[in-house]
Write a structure and sequence with these properties.
This protein is of the alpha+beta class. Helix content is 44%, strand content 21%. The chain has 2 domains: 143 residues, 2-Layer Sandwich (Beta Polymerase, domain 2), CATH 3.30.460; 58 residues, no CATH class. The mean pLDDT is 94.
């Protein structure tokens, strides 16, 4: 990547680089959430991609604090101006049969399926940690709330595919000096990550 600028101050990360079509897709959707004051966090694969890891993805995972049904309907109406829901065309069904049951729904730009946003409400302790301890990533002046990097790395190691291991390694190597190693070790222990895998992919972690 050319003309890349990375600055970390506390929980704020400023990152400037040339934006991709996927970045614009995510930024556009996040602006709708912020417009309607929906608290959210971006998790999983896009976090490695947004920091420059070169790989494809079909979806971007976003967790939100569950809005009221009224708020969701207003948000849905706004989203439907530029997107469509892959699962259902009925906001009541989306809210009651999917989100309220701990299931996600997917939004894609009209006329396309990929990429899409997987939209889920907080469900369980891991989701709660992700959203309450989120870090602010300012990507070319666009604010994005992302999962704690330490948790993201540990979770990717837990998932266990080659792609996930490489995502974890990429983030660890790029942001090593800015990571809370005690917190990372705590998450790795919580996810019961094998020591041999940690030594292989997270070299130098104490």
């Amino acid at each position: 990547m050319n003309d890349v600028e990375l600055t970390v101050t506390g929980k704020k990360i400023i990152f400037n680089r040339e934006l991709s079509n996927l970045d614009y897709f995510v930024i556009d959707f996040i602006k709708l959430l912020e417009k309607h004051h929906v608290n959210y966090v971006i998790v999983s694969g896009y976090i490695a991609i947004v920091f420059g890891r070169s790989r494809n993805t079909e979806d971007v995972d976003i967790i939100v604090e569950k809005p009221s049904q009224t708020t969701f309907k207003v948000l849905w109406k706004d989203i439907m101006k530029r997107y469509e829901c892959v699962n259902t065309s009925d906001p009541n069904e989306a809210y009651m049969e999917y989100l309220s049951q701990g299931c996600g729904i997917r939004f894609s730009q009209k006329g396309t399926i990929i990429p899409n946003i997987e939209f889920k409400c907080v469900h369980g302790d891991d989701d709660d940690i992700s959203i309450t301890q989120a870090r602010l990533l300012v990507l070319n002046s666009n604010p994005l709330r992302i999962s704690p990097l330490e948790m993201q790395i540990a979770y990717k190691m837990y998932l266990g595919s080659d792609k996930d291991f490489e995502d974890a390694k990429f983030l660890f190597d790029l942001l090593n000096e800015h990571l809370d190693k005690a917190k990372l070790n705590s998450f790795l222990a919580a996810f019961n990550t094998k020591t041999t895998l940690v030594k292989k992919y997270l070299k130098g972690l104490q």
